[in-house]
Amino acid sequence: MQVGNAPNSVGKATNCTSWAMYHPRMHSAPDLAAFILAGGKSTRMGTDKAFVEFEGRTLLARALDLTRSVTLDVRIVGDPAKFGAFAPVVEDIFSGCGPLAGIHAALRSSSADLNLILAIDLPFVSLALLQYLVTRARNSADARVTIANDNGGLQPLAAIYRREFAEAAEKALQQGRYKIDVLFESATTQIIPEPELEAAGFSPRIFRNLNTPQDLAEARK
Fold this sequence. Notes:
The protein has 221 residues and is of the alpha/beta class. It has one domain (30-219): Spore Coat Polysaccharide Biosynthesis Protein SpsA, Chain A, CATH 3.90.550. Helices cover 27% and strands 18% of the residues.
């Protein structure tokens, strides 16, 4: 798979600064939209994760604040009756088919070339990381997906997708195939390796998610 070089303005972290420390707000642009995946059943959590409170705010409020710092075009993928009061909502076209269906619905509804997909249960993802991913995507015109590789695994629910990825997602969903990773073709996927993330100042724990009450309790410690 394609692994591009870091932007010239980033380089390696030093004792004084790193990409993770420098995160001014990005100006909204027509080439970028953001979608919060909030349509899961939250079975393991026992209650709707979107409204679980963490550090004084719900996970939904945190995700909205974060994505709105990247672009003004922010939407929620989920139930309009539940989330319509907070932001524009997109519904799955393939209902009950997991996160891939949410990504597909987001991309089909988008007019932007670049689309940030962020799961509701990733409260440690930072503005700086999202800016880093967006910058890498903008600098790699051939990359259909820009995605981080952390702790040996890809992170498809905090990644940048070009709108054309919807075609591969739709074909897979029609065939009853719901895994996201298998759709990442080597020639069109830009993987940001873990050493690069660490050099830019991002902790390996940044992709830690909250799936269960135990996860939540440990995160609050």
